[in-house]
Specification:
Helices cover 38% and strands 18% of the residues. By secondary structure, the chain is an alpha+beta fold. It has a 5-stranded mixed sheet. Strands 9, 10, 11, 12 and 13 form a 5-stranded antiparallel sheet that branches.
Length: 433
């Protein structure tokens, strides 16, 4: 195959991917965990994230804690501390933005960066700039990241995955054909199992085989997405790096795994209503309203059932959704089953203020329910989330402790003046002497 381009970097896109992020945050917070097999997810009963030391012993995400302990008897199992992980994430993005303003927060532990045009500013190559960012994150946060650099987001993401952990890979334009010659199709973000199976039927085994076909083949086989990926993999930046904050939500979901599993009607219902409260709080925080609610219950064997229902209008008031959620719960719940998780999804979302009612609605009641939610938000903002809550959710705060319900260290190691609900935005790392 001929060279795809003679240019090294007509545009320079980097992808930064944290290595085993949750576990790495725990190891950075507590130096005593460095080099040890660490996993998070104690509260769920399954592995949420495994450090590379744990992965080397056969432990991976999604397996049960009991099975993980059999593979690695000295495994350190921690409850997930999402507050701390969010703080590390914010600090990481802050470090990255010191180098370039054009940063896309792809997920809590991933970012795309547009470095195009920065060589003159830093008097360095794009590879050197990307390495400097990587070194700054490691030095300041004590977590490792893997960095990929290339001409498009798809290629950059391929590069960052290649040499994990603590890896770096740069793919200039004139070497694309070399790297992709043996790159499996499964590595491409956007090529799922069915897509790979389809391409295999046409004799396409590696990424280079795909982009070596004419664009008409990509369009016929995979449609618009196939053409976009074909262009991205050839070094054309189709998916631009966007630094816009996420403002549009297609849905808002809140779920919670609890221990021990329960078949007590009031206990499971309380968990569900707490999910609903949290989802509605987020809805109001972003000045949104929803019309559709989905409720689901997950059993101890990980099977689950769910149902969806609609209001006759959009709303952001918690008490508008409570009767619907309660009705669905009664249809889904079975007293002979043990449940380990509940969840609520609010969808058909629009901007606040579209809560129009029809002829048969009671406008006074609608306004009162909205006022109640607003009053609860003000009180909870001052005294802590869920200080005031609907009665059906009250059992959540009175449940007895369980070995797996251990709180994260950040929620118990409080600074003077902090409460369980209101923390200073630092991870409270241990002092090293």
């Amino acid at each position: 195959m001929n060279l795809l381009t003679l240019s090294s970097y007509p545009q320079a896109i980097a992808h930064i991917d944290c290595d085993a992020f949750f576990a790495s945050c725990e190891q950075a917070r507590d130096a005593g965990l460095k080099g040890r097999p660490v996993v998070t997810g104690k509260e769920r009963g399954i592995i949420a994230c495994a450090s590379y030391e744990a992965k080397a012993r056969g432990v991976s995400r999604g397996i049960r804690l009991g099975d993980a302990k059999k593979l690695c008897p000295d495994l350190v199992i921690l409850p997930s501390d999402y507050e701390t992980y969010s703080i590390y994430s914010e600090r990481m993005f802050s470090i990255i933005r010191r180098f370039t303003p054009l940063v896309e927060e792809y997920s809590i532990d991933e970012a795309f960066l547009d470095l195009t045009g920065l060589r003159r500013l830093y008097r360095a190559s794009y590879e050197e700039i990307a390495k400097s960012i990587k070194e700054a994150v490691i030095a300041e946060l004590d977590i490792t990241v893997s960095v990929g650099l290339s001409l498009s987001k798809t290629l950059a993401k391929l590069c960052s995955k290649e040499n994990k952990p603590n890896g770096f890979m740069a793919m200039p334009g004139y070497r694309i054909h070399e790297y992709l010659k043996t790159m499996p199709l499964e590595r491409v973000c956007g090529f799922g199992p069915n897509t790979v199976a389809l391409l295999n039927k046409y004799g396409i085994k590696a990424v280079l085989d795909y982009i070596d076909r004419p664009v008409q083949f990509a369009e016929k086989a995979l449609g618009k997405i196939g053409v976009e990926l074909w262009r991205e993999l050839r070094g054309e930046s189709v998916y631009k790096v966007s630094d816009e904050k996420k403002e549009k939500y297609l849905s808002i979901s809140k779920t919670k795994t609890f221990v021990p599993a329960s078949r007590d009607r009031d206990t499971v219902k309380a968990r569900l209503m707490r999910n609903l409260e949290s989802a509605c709080i987020k809805l109001r925080r972003h000045k949104l309203s929803a019309r559709t609610i989905t409720v689901y219950l997950r059993q101890q064997d990980f099977s689950g059932r769910g149902m969806e229902a609609n209001l006759n209008r959009h709303s952001q008031a918690t008490l508008d959704f409570v009767p619907i959620a309660a009705g669905i719960f009664e249809r889904l719940f079975s007293s002979d089953k043990y449940y380990r998780a509940t969840g609520v999804i609010l969808s058909d979302i629009t901007d606040q203020g579209i809560d129009r009612h029809d002829l048969f609605d009671d406008p006074v009641r609608i306004e009162k329910l909205a006022d109640i939610s607003s009053a609860m938000d003000r009180i909870n903002s001052a005294y802590g989330k869920h200080t005031v809550h609907i009665a059906a959710a009250g059992l959540v705060d009175r449940e007895s402790s369980h070995p797996r319900s251990e709180l994260p260290w950040r929620k118990t190691g409080l600074l003077p003046g902090e409460t369980a609900r209101k923390h200073i935005g630092i991870p409270l790392m241990k002092i090293r002497v």
